[in-house]
Specification:
The complex is a heterodimer of chains A (about 280) and B (about 140). Chain A is mainly alpha-helical. Chain A has helices at about 1-35, 35-45, 50-70, 75-100, 110-135, 145-170, 175-180, 185-205, 220-245, 255-275. The model of chain A is unreliable at about 135-140 (pLDDT under 50). Chain B has helices at about 1-15, 20-50, and strands spanning about 55-65, 70-80, 85-95, 100-110, 115-120, 130-140. The chains are: A mainly alpha (about 280), B alpha+beta (about 140). The interface between A and B is large, with 45 and 37 residues.
C-alpha cells in the first residue's frame, strides 16, 4: 500500500517538474505576441464568433501534437486530450499573469477584455507548453508514433508550425502594409521564394533532422508531395488567420489574396521548420 | 520471486504505470474548465450583443492645479457594444454661450463596456465656468 502511494507521490513530483518546463516553453513561445500591442487590441475588438472558432480549432491541433509527440508519454487520444488541456491551463495562467504584470490588464478591465486578451495569447503559449515536454525535456527514446503517422503526421506538423509562426506575425499591421506595397509581380515572387525556402529548409541546408530524399522518390515527387502541399496548407492557414483577425474586412479579393500570400511566407517557414524540429 | 521482481522494476521506471499523476488530472480539468468557460462566455457575448452603437459618456474625476494652469482628469465609459478607435474627445470651457477655451485629445481604443482615463490641460480655472467634455468622432478598427 505504502509502496503504491510513494509511487504516486514520485509521479506527482516528476510531473510537477514537467509542468514547470511547460511554463518555460509557454513563455518562450508566447513572449513575442505577449509584448505586441496589436494582439492585446485584437483580444477585445475581434469578432466573438471568430475568436470562439479559433479557440475551438486549437483543441484538435493541441491534441494531435500531444498524441504524435508524446507529452508525458500519452498513449492514447484521451491522454493526449488531458495533456492538451494542461497545456491550455499553463498558457492561460502565464498569459493572464504577464498581461497583468505589463499593465495590459487590470482589476478594472472588463471581463470581456480579460477573456479576449488571454484567449488569444493562449494559442501560441499552449503550443510552447506542449513542445517543452517533448523537445526540451529529458526525452526518452525516439518517437515511434511519428513514423506510424506517415504522411498525415508530416502534414499535421507542418500545419502546427504554420499556425505558430503565422499567428505570431498575423496581428501586426505590417502584414497589410507590405501587401499594399506589393505589385502582382512582387506577390508572385513571394510565392516562389516561400516554396524555395520551404524546400531548401527540409532537403538541402543540412539542418539537424534533415529529411533524406528516399532513393525511389524523384525530386518532383518530393516537391509536389511535401513542399507544394505544405505551402497550400500554410496558405490556407494564413487565409483562416487573416479572416479571423478581420484583416480582409472591406477589401477586394485580390488584396485579400496578397495579404494571405504575405502571411503565408512566415507560415511556410514555420511549416518547414516544424518538419525538421518536431 | 524473480518472476515478480522483473515486471515490478519495469513498472516503477515507467511513469505510466503509477497511473496518471493527480496533478495532471487537476491541471487538465482546470484547463478544460477554463476553455469551456471562455468559449461559453464568448458565445454568450456573441449571442446577446445587440450591436448597440458606441455610446460614450464622460465624467470629470478631478481638477488639479498644475504649473501654468489646470489639469482636468476624466473617465470615458463606452455604454455600447462596438469598439471605438481613434476616439477624439474635446473639452470646452464655456462662459455663457461663449467658448473660453478648448482642449482636445485622442483615445486609441475604447472597447464596448469598458472605461479609459485621460486628462485635459487648461489655462483658465475650469471651476469658473461650465466644462463640457464630449466625444467628437471615432473609426471602427
Amino acid at each position: 500500500m505504502s509502496d503504491a502511494s510513494t509511487c504516486a507521490d514520485s509521479g506527482d513530483r516528476q510531473y510537477a517538474t514537467g509542468v514547470a518546463r511547460a511554463f518555460g516553453g509557454a513563455l518562450l513561445f508566447s513572449l513575442p505576441i505577449l509584448m505586441t500591442m496589436e494582439t492585446w487590441q485584437l483580444g477585445f475588438y475581434m469578432d466573438r464568433w471568430k475568436l470562439v472558432c479559433l479557440l475551438v480549432m486549437m483543441l484538435p491541433l493541441l491534441v494531435g501534437l500531444a498524441y504524435y509527440l508524446g507529452f508525458e508519454d500519452s498513449t492514447n487520444l484521451f491522454d493526449a486530450a488531458v495533456d492538451a488541456f494542461v497545456a491550455i491551463a499553463v498558457a492561460a495562467v502565464l498569459a493572464a499573469a504577464l498581461l497583468y504584470l505589463f499593465g495590459a490588464l487590470s482589476l478594472r478591465t472588463s471581463i470581456d477584455e480579460w477573456i479576449g486578451k488571454v484567449a488569444l495569447q493562449t494559442m501560441a503559449g499552449s503550443i510552447g507548453a506542449l513542445l517543452a515536454q517533448s523537445q526540451f525535456g529529458s526525452s526518452n527514446a525516439d518517437n515511434d508514433k511519428r513514423r506510424e503517422g506517415g504522411d498525415f503526421a508530416e502534414y499535421f506538423f507542418m500545419a502546427a508550425g504554420a499556425v505558430f509562426l503565422g499567428a505570431n506575425v498575423a496581428p501586426t499591421e505590417e502584414v497589410v502594409l507590405i501587401a499594399h506595397r506589393m505589385t502582382s509581380w512582387h506577390t508572385l515572387g513571394v510565392i516562389l521564394v516561400s516554396l524555395l525556402v520551404m524546400h531548401a529548409f527540409v532537403y538541402a541546408l543540412d539542418f539537424r533532422g534533415q529529411h533524406e530524399r528516399a532513393a525511389e522518390q524523384s525530386f518532383s515527387s518530393e516537391f509536389l508531395r511535401f513542399t507544394m502541399v505544405g505551402y497550400l496548407i500554410a496558405l490556407a492557414i494564413s487565409v483562416y488567420i487573416c479572416w479571423s483577425f478581420g484583416r480582409f474586412d472591406g477589401l477586394p479579393v485580390s488584396v485579400a489574396l496578397q495579404i494571405s500570400v504575405v502571411l503565408a511566407f512566415p507560415a511556410s517557414v514555420g511549416a518547414a521548420a516544424a518538419r525538421l524540429v518536431l | 520471486m524473480t518472476d515478480l521482481g522483473a515486471p515490478n522494476r519495469l513498472r516503477r521506471s515507467d511513469p505510466r504505470a503509477a497511473g496518471t499523476p493527480r496533478l495532471e488530472w487537476a491541471l487538465g480539468a482546470f484547463g478544460a474548465l477554463l476553455l469551456a468557460c471562455a468559449a461559453s462566455f464568448l458565445v454568450h457575448e456573441a449571442l446577446t450583443a445587440d450591436d448597440r452603437p458606441g455610446a460614450v459618456t464622460a465624467s470629470v474625476m478631478g481638477i488639479h492645479e498644475v504649473d501654468g494652469g489646470y489639469l482636468v482628469t476624466f473617465v470615458l465609459r463606452n455604454l455600447g457594444d462596438a469598439t471605438l478607435s481613434e476616439l477624439h474627445v474635446s473639452a470646452r470651457l464655456m462662459d455663457g454661450d461663449e467658448e473660453v477655451e478648448r482642449a482636445q485629445t485622442v483615445i486609441d481604443y475604447l472597447p464596448g463596456g469598458s472605461t479609459r482615463e485621460g486628462g485635459f490641460y487648461l489655462r483658465s480655472d475650469p471651476r469658473d465656468g461650465a466644462l463640457d467634455i464630449r466625444p467628437e468622432g471615432y473609426v471602427i478598427p
